[in-house]
Amino acid sequence: MLGFRFFRSRPTDYVLLFSSGRPRRKGLGLGGVIYTPTATAAAVPIDTRDDIFSVEAMTADYQTVTVQGQLTYRIAEPETAAARQDFAIDLKTGRHVGEPMKQVVERLRAIVQSACRDALVSSTLDAALNKAGDLSAAIVGTITRDTRIAGDGIAVDRVLVLSVKPAPEIRKALEAELREQLLRKADAAVFERRRAAQGDEHDLKVREEQNRRQLAETELKNQEALEAERKRVADARAATAKREAETDAESSRIRMKPWAEMPAAHIAAMGFKDWANRNTALQTLSVGGDVLTSLADALKGAKAG
Fold first, then answer.
1. What is the pLDDT of residues 201-214, one digit of tens each?
2. Which of these CATH numbers, 3.30.420.40, 3.40.50.300, 3.30.479.30, 3.30.360.10, describes 4-166?
């Protein structure tokens, strides 16, 4: 009404209000009633923003790689940025008249691209594919050394290189080579397992043969010990039998010694006497020639006496 309008901004916008070309108010999240015919404003977003970048660079061996990453930036000095860049807004809609943040991003992407090319120009493809951390540090260092970025009030908080990829045909060749290496490693692992299994089987057979040999040696020793024990028992039995026989012979000799010292006639007479003392009748008597001769000799000697 009558050119007056209530103006409000986002909490993350640093607003500078001008009236008739002269600064009136400034601050974060500024709002209030303004007179639109003479008022102008600039809003500088100071919130932290992320941008995904993709940069192509050439390596030392003339291979093209694509570097993809994320850039985190913000407007650190809004008044300086507003003085170097057009952040004017439409007071009716509250939107920027131009695209100042897009220009900031394009400026940062150009610096990132230059830093990646300078970092990869002296690296081979193999080294570049494993250089994500070094690229992040190189980009941050290039931005830090760029005095114009700091002079424009822009600050970069972090740069992350997410991937470094070769060209599709080179990638296929590298994947094929890597696949071949993995297959060779797998074949080597299978061969090693087979060799180890054969070695284990051989060791098992050797141990089984050693066990059989030890069992055979133990059994042979046991048999020899058993035979030695049997021989000892047999010798002991033989010695015992011999001593028993000698004892029996000695006993018989002692018992027969009185008979051997007696005259044959006395022995015969004792025999007849013993027979006579029995209560049996004589039915048959067999007398040999030797006995008759001995009896006759005995009778002759009795008569002569």
1. 888 888 888 888 88
2. 3.30.479.30
